[in-house]
Amino acid sequence: MTLKSSLRRTLYQTEKLAQRARFANTTAPQNGWPTLLGISFPKSGTHLLDQILLGFSNVAPFSRRLHSFYAEYEGESGRKRAPEQALAWLDSLRPCDIASAHLFARPDAIVRVCSPVFIPYFIFRDPRDVVVSHVFYVTDMESRHVHHDYYTSLPDFDSRLKTSILGRPDAGIEFPDIADRFAPYLGWPDHPEVLTIHFEDLINNRASTLTCIMDHFLTRAPLHAPRQLILNSLESSINPTKSPTFRSGKTGEWKKHFKEEHKRIFKDVAGDLLIKLGYEKDNDW
């Protein structure tokens, strides 16, 4: 462990102790305080959900910063992590931690996440907006990303968007098409222990969505704080300027970028996914 990481860990534990003292008179749930876990599909509002969950630290003894973030792929190398690494990470989390992950819905992970020690949330967005966001992120925002050099070598946005839809099957590193990238996450919405959140609802129906996030928390960890105080804490914690991938805060941006060829290839590889996720009723879009 480096000196920097050691200091960060010490600061984190010190802040947790301060939170525990701050809320010493708050009655803990019957089974103890859980861990808050935000699961997200990449480019689907990860940082937005993180900020909202951190809002609970204003009304209960939860950490004031993320414990850690886990991703199934290493960003710089593109290497896929072993399933055991995800389980070890989940097992490292403690009560009152708030953590974030791009986490596959593997059976062993589901068993852990859907246990009483977690309050889990899963956020995703329209996969068409995901691929557009992915292009901007890889090309313009993260020069260390494993695909950055390849994306910048492509002649234009259209060719990069095609790549984000179709993946890079011959790249030598795993980067499948958008439907296959989403497939490992499809198990999360099948479990009522996990609250499913559409990114679009946080933008267009924020008040009701924050209420759902609060109520999901309260079913596991009842609080005596007024409901409006809790909602205000969640709302005030949102700060788009601190999210490196929150560009416009709008939905349906794919319509500005998709040409007929993009629509055709997207329907070919992921038309059924849009229907399954409720974004379209059929392929007539």
Describe the 3D structure.
It is a single chain. The chain has one domain: Rossmann fold (3-Layer(aba) Sandwich). It has 13 helices and five strands. It has a five-stranded parallel sheet. The chain is an alpha/beta fold and 285 residues long. Strand 2, helix 3 and strand 3 form a beta-alpha-beta unit. It is globular, with a radius of gyration of 20 Å. The model has no long low-confidence stretch (mean pLDDT 94).
Number of domains: 1
How do the helices and strands follow one another from N- to C-terminus? HEHEHEHEHHHHEHHHHH
Spatial separation of the terminal alpha carbons = 52 Å
Question: Which regions contain 5 or more consecutive residues with pLDDT less than 50?
Answer: none
Major sheet attributes: 5 strands, parallel
Query: What Rg, in angstroms, do the CA atoms define?
Result: 20 Å
Shape: globular
Q: Please give the order of strands in the largest beta sheet.
A: 2-3-1-4-5
SSE topology sketch:
Elements: H1 3-22, E1 35-40, H2 46-54, E2 69-71, H3 83-92, E3 98-102, H4 107-113, E4 118-124, H5 127-141, H6 148-153, H7 157-166, H8 178-182, E5 195-198, H9 199-204, H10 206-220, H11 227-236, H12 254-257, H13 260-277
Parallel strand pairs: 1-3, 1-4, 2-3, 4-5
